Amino acid sequence: MEEKSSCDGGHEFKLLLSCPSGLSPSQVSVVFNEAYDRIPHPDPFLEQSIFEVWEERERQNSPLYNWTNFRYGGYTFDVGNDPKQQPHVSLQLGLTNYRDFVGTNLSPIWERYLVPSEDDCIQCQHTSSPLGNGAVVETSDKKILVLQRSNRVGEFPGYFAFPGGNPEPQDVGIVSHDGFHELNQCRNSKVSQEMFDSIVCEVVEETGAPANSLLPYGSTFAELRESHVEGKGPSSMRVIWRTWLLKCPAATEEALHSTI
After folding, report:
1. What whole-number distance in Å separates Cα of residue 149 and Cα of residue 157?
2. Torsion angle in degrees (nearest 10) through CA of 48, 53, 58, 60
3. Average pLDDT of the segment spanning 82-101
4. Residue 9: its pLDDT value, please?
5. Which of 145-149, 150-154, 165-169 has the least mean pLDDT?
6. Burial class of residue 35 (count of CB atoms within 10 Å of its CB; 0-12, 13-18, 19+)
7. Half-sphere exposure (CA, 13 Å, Cβ side) for 105?
8. Is pLDDT larger for residue 86 or for residue 51?
9. Beta bridge partners of 29
10. How far apart are CA 63 and CA 68, in angstroms?
11. At what angle do helices 250-259 and 184-207 cross, to 10 degrees?
């Protein structure tokens, strides 16, 4: 496990957890609970500001959709005492939405939502902090795929980025904490699987690489990083996966052709 910060062109990230050899699905689990949702700020002005910032963004980038995301609430990392025991990471997730993300993490007054604390989760308890994912896609001919973001998106227009997006609560039948009657263990298992399934979907959709070109369980958990926006504070938590493509060298050419 490592913790360090990096900066590239004013865009910083803090590396919270690094697993260079990668973690398989059996080594990654999720605890999904409303205890990890955003805590409303006690200042009513700041809560009202979320709606005002969202309305202003809608006027600039209409239409916007207020989709639901998983919210990052922390993690535990267990290496165990037995040398033969595999390391295990457990992600602590709640729910948030795009409106709260725009109105807190991307707000012009984002600093006022932070709590003075050395603990990242306490410091960001009033911010949206959605969990995203990104894939370092390595082909069998030893190339890495990157995509260029549209100039019409709200965040980082025109930038080069790894394929990625967000694991979707709706894909495992979660729209809120209310009315979700499955046993916690079953629910957490579904959310854990969504972490892996979602990054495969993102790679397929964004690169054009066919699903059957990915190695079975070709994505492994590599990093957990806290992203920062230039001139602003923590924007989101992102899980970085390593993903391998089978086809060589056509996989690289076909995928790049489909995204340029």
Report:
1. 6
2. 150
3. 88
4. 43
5. 150-154
6. exposed
7. 26
8. 51
9. 90
10. 16
11. 90
* Residue listed under structure tokens 């609430």: 73
Hey, is 178 helix, strand or coil?
coil
Structure-block tokens of residue 97? 């939405």
d(CA 199, CA 210) in angstroms, rounded, equals 14
In angstroms, what CA-CA distances link 219 with 87, 119, 167?
A: 17, 29, 14
Q: Is 170 helix (H, G, I), strand (E, B) or coil?
A: helix
Q: How confident is the model at residue 217 (pLDDT cuts 50, 70, 90)?
A: very low
1-5, 180-184, 200-204, 207-211: least confidently modelled range: 1-5
The mean pLDDT value for 109-113 works out to: 92
DSSP SS3 for 177: coil
In this prediction the pTM is 0.81
Looking at the chain, the whole-number percentage of residues with pLDDT higher than 70 is: 76
Tokens found for residue 245: 């493509």
Phi-psi region of 10 (alpha: psi -120 to 50; beta: other; left: phi over 0): left
Residue type, 16: L
Query: Strand runs (DSSP E) across the chain, as ranges?
Result: 4-8, 11-23, 28-32, 68-78, 88-97, 131-138, 144-145, 147-148, 160-161, 164-165, 214-228, 234-245
Q: Which amino acid is at 246?
A: L
Exposed / middle / buried, residue 164 (Cβ in 10 Å: 0-12, 13-18, 19+):
buried
